[in-house]
Amino acid sequence: MGELKGIEVSNILGFEEPLSKLIDAIRCGIGKVYEPTHIKRMAKAKAKEIELIGEAVTSNLNLPTKYDGGQILIDTSSAEELIKRTGNRVLYREIRRQQNIDAVVADTYKRLENEEKVSAEPVNEDWLFKFFDFAGDISNEQMQQLWSKILAGEIKQPNTYSLKLLNTLKNMTTYEANLFQKISAFSIYHDEIPVISTEIELLKKYGCECDELLTIEDCGLINLNGFTTLKAEKEEKNTLHTEKIAMTVEGYLDIGVYTFSESGKQLLKLIKENTNLEYTIEVMKIWKKQNNSIKAYKIVNFDENNLEYDDKVDLLLENN
Q: What is the pTM of this model?
């Protein structure tokens, strides 16, 4: 591919629309053209450079000082050496940030290369600027993959992920991200809104402790104070579901639930929910004590436009 670079070149080479849009987004976000096919090679080439600069910075951590009048002062007589060491630290930081961005973009490229279509709407430039500014500080591989999912999703459909979510994620640790994924296994959807039952003892039984919920609340992803009461009062049949089980109820149902924040809802879209089936069945059995019409069925087909379940076998019956 030689030294050819840039969005125009990508079109000449026959990149599909999603990848062209990715290149354009990167150009807007970091202010230069980018060639995604060379990202991994670039990252590897920088690794040794980072190591060398890191050694230089480490060996020069101590600033030159002098004792004067009972105080220890920085000796600025060797300003050139001080500037050199400062430059090394700045260079090291910027190279490391670029390597982090390279890793996120490389993973985004893989996520988009088999996509056929994306929205024609451009990604907001302010959003892109913030995204790449934050992504430069993400060095953990698992978190980088999460950020690449966000970028890919935003390219496919702009305004899917908010700046508030980016601000939330930039302050989250890998532990907190894994904890959120663990807690997501207890979520149930009503009218496509995710909630978690307030049956605390049941959550504890299945390994979800109160302090873990508090940690996720502190991240701004779930609301525990003043929990919402979910009421199903319609004459017709209501449906609540996970990705594996659908629950139907007729008439009145009043249950306590914790709700997710908007950032929490958006983050749920990014992770693969591994619903705890035993927990889901047990919490539905508790709800059934309030309304005996509740039944639970195995979902056979589920996408954003359709929910089909096998209504021949009620999973809440004692012999199932």
A: 0.74
